[in-house]
Specification:
Elements (H helix, E strand, L loop, with lengths): L2 E4 L3 H13 L3 E7 L6 H5 L2 E6 L10 H11 L3 E3 L9 H9 L3 E2 L4 H8 L1 H10 L15 H11 L3 E5 L9 E3 L2 H19 L4 E5 L5 E9 L5 E13 L2 E7 L6 H17 L4 E10 L2 E8 L6 H8 L3 H9 L15 E8 L1 E2 L5 E2 L2 E2 L2 E3 L6 E5 L6 E2 L6 E9 L2 H14 L1 E3 L5 H7 L3 H5 L6 H4 L20 E10 L2 E13 L5 E3 L20 E3 L4 E6 L6 E2 L4 E7 L2 E6 L4 E6 L6 E2 L4 E5 L1
Parallel strand pairs: 1-2, 1-4, 2-3, 4-5
Antiparallel strand pairs: 6-7, 6-8, 9-10, 9-12, 10-11, 11-14, 12-13, 14-21, 15-16, 17-20, 18-22, 19-21, 23-24, 24-25, 26-33, 27-29, 27-32, 28-31, 29-30, 31-33
Length: 581
């Protein structure tokens, strides 16, 4: 294995490129037209355009990615996380193309990727799951019958994926129909599989995950657990290791269960087995057959480079460690996302007008951006991962506060103010919290608003070309730049200008009776037709941005006198969706 194509973007592409180059491997990046100036593109030895901005036409374009791998002379593919990382068909295609797949066997991906099959596999290995169904739902009535037997709340979950995507928590019968429809719609959008299943939703549970490594020689190690309970919208926000307050015997039992599940799947590579912990009991949740976003904190306390281990395992080498090292110190990861905590963590795509990362002892930042980078509606809203390490938990928390205050991001709203508030919360400081802390027992509505910018992709671009010579060889280079029409009708580049500020109004409110888009996105559902009556606070449409659905509510009661959008329309922040009078 000499040359590796990284089939991803952003910070994980940067992370893989750096690990590969540390091992002396040549690296090949791919990019969409929107990412042509991205950091990962510049760090790789070479980079190839794989299509337009929408992921379906670029980062999910299997044929084009494999074509690039062949033309670039790559002999291995690392998928990172997200996109095609847990797609067994892609793994098969890579292997059939004669390339090395840096990940688990396709059969293991398929087994653990189907959440119903994975539950059966775990239970066969002696690891019980959360009470739930073992077959996909065929109708909402089956969900209603399950709720009648087990009681609310219940969780409707995508059968073909994980990570909180396609998951809806239902607390009453009046929410069931809409939640069932939304979960199936998100599951289809994320995993091309609308099948969903049910679980009893456990209140006061902790989300604890176990990091495992397996090579193809039968060696497997448990590298400790991470507490990932601090979440919003079922997406992780803060992770730490070791999990605070976890008894040693429970930690050991979780590790043994994780190894048993991985062995049952004939697993190879890095993987993460996730559990819900209630008291001294734990239940299998799912297995992520890829490198995790939060792998960084395990690296910090074990001094094991998990991405490098993935690459060595793929090359047929045994694990570089014969036994799991004893964790040293405490590490915390804080996901710096382009979201507005004051408005229910609403996605906030835009341009990073100012970007300065913190530094100093015990501080690590994994990112794929720089000042001027675009956080686009087309992709995940992660800006960077702030990782801190201390000799103990108290020092790690103090270091995290210091680093957050040093972190400067302007141009988009971020989760930094929310992180600072979380790090001061009594339940967090005591290490006694659960998955509902952020959404049920914390209030971020009084956090100050952030002025944000418009996205460059909203501006008109013109394709240009220039002929250059490199080492005496002639190349014709294409590039894109904003344009304005000159008085003579010719085209000239747009002058640089200060990005406009965007006002912050309540969700869907752009003035009395005027419903506006709070962010750039795509309309995926409209609840009412023109002429129908609505009441204040009632959902009127659903806007998808950064792969997250956002319910837009009526700012006032009345009749929809002007409906200006339809399902599938792309809208900009501030666009009028409808008028209610």
């Amino acid at each position: 294995m000499h040359s590796i194509l990284v089939a991803n973007r952003g910070e994980i592409a940067v992370r893989v490129i750096r690990a590969a180059r540390d091992l002396g491997l040549r690296t090949v990046a791919i990019y969409s037209e929107l990412d042509r100036d991205a950091v990962h593109v510049e760090l790789a030895d070479e980079a190839w355009n794989v299509g337009p901005a929408p992921a379906a036409e670029s980062y999910l374009n299997v044929d084009r990615i494999l074509e690039v791998a062949r033309e670039a002379g790559a002999d291995a593919v690392h998928p990172g996380y997200g996109f095609l990382a847990e797609n067994p068909a892609f793994a098969e295609a890579v292997i059939e193309a004669g390339l090395v797949w840096v990940g688990p066997p396709p059969a293991a991906i398929a087994m653990m990727g189907d959440k119903i099959v994975s539950r059966r596999t775990a239970e066969a290995a002696g690891v019980p799951g959360v009470p739930g169904t073992i077959d996909p739902l065929t109708s909402v009535e089956e969900a209603r019958a399950f709720a009648a037997e087990h009681g609310y709340p219940i969780a409707i979950k995508a059968a073909g994926g994980g990570g909180g995507r396609g998951m809806k928590v239902v607390r009453g019968d009046d929410e069931l129909d809409a939640a069932f429809e939304a979960a199936a719609r998100e599951a289809e959008a994320w995993f091309a599989n609308p099948e969903v299943y049910l679980e009893k939703y456990l209140e006061k549970a902790r989300h604890v995950e176990a990091q495992v490594l397996f090579d193809r020689h039968g060696n497997g190690v448990f590298l400790g657990e991470r507490d990932c309970s601090l979440q919003r919208r079922h997406q992780k926000l803060v992770e730490e290791t070791p999990a605070p307050g976890l008894p040693d015997d429970l930690r050991a039992a979780i590790g043994e269960a994780a190894l048993a599940v991985a062995r049952a799947a004939d697993y190879e590579s890095a993987g993460t087995v996730e559990f819900l912990v209630v008291g001294d009991a734990f239940y299998f949740l799912e297995m992520n057959t890829r490198i995790q976003v939060e792998h960084t904190i395990t690296e910090e306390v074990t001094n094991v480079d998990l991405v490098a281990e993935q690459l060595r395992i793929a090359a047929g080498e045994p694990l570089s460690i014969s036994a799991a090292p004893r964790p040293v110190g405490h590490a915390i990861e804080l996901r710096i996302n382009a979201e507005d905590p004051a408005h229910d963590f609403r996605p906030d795509p835009g341009t990073l007008a100012t970007y300065r990362e913190p530094a100093g002892p015990g501080v690590r930042v994994d990112s794929g951006v720089r000042q001027g980078s675009v956080i686009s509606q087309y992709y995940d809203n992660l800006i960077a991962k702030l990782v801190v390490r201390g000799r103990d938990r108290d020092e790690a928390i103090r270091r995290a506060r210091r680093a957050l205050r040093e972190f400067v991001v302007e141009g988009v709203a971020t989760t930094i103010p929310a992180h600072l508030r979380i790090l001061e919360h009594d339940e967090f400081l005591a290490g006694d919290y659960d998955t509902r802390l952020v959404e049920d027992r914390m209030d971020f509505s009084d956090l100050p608003p952030t002025a944000t910018t418009t996205l460059p992709e909203e501006e008109e671009l013109v394709e240009r070309s220039v002929t250059v010579e490199v080492g005496g060889k002639r190349f014709k280079v294409r590039y894109w730049s904003p344009v304005l029409a000159a008085p003579s009708g010719s085209v000239r580049p747009a002058p640089r200008r200060r990005p406009p500020k965007r006002s912050r109004t309540g969700p869907g409110g752009g003035g009395e009776g005027i419903v506006t888009a709070p962010m750039q996105g795509t309309v995926v559902k409209i609840h009412h037709k023109a002429g129908e009556a609505v009441t204040q606070g009632e959902p009127v449409c659903v806007l998808e941005a950064m792969k997250m659905e956002n319910e837009i509510v009526a700012p006032t009661s009345g009749e929809i006198v002007d409906l200006r959008v339809q399902v599938g329309d792309s809208v900009s922040a501030g666009s009028v969706l409808m008028v209610i009078r």
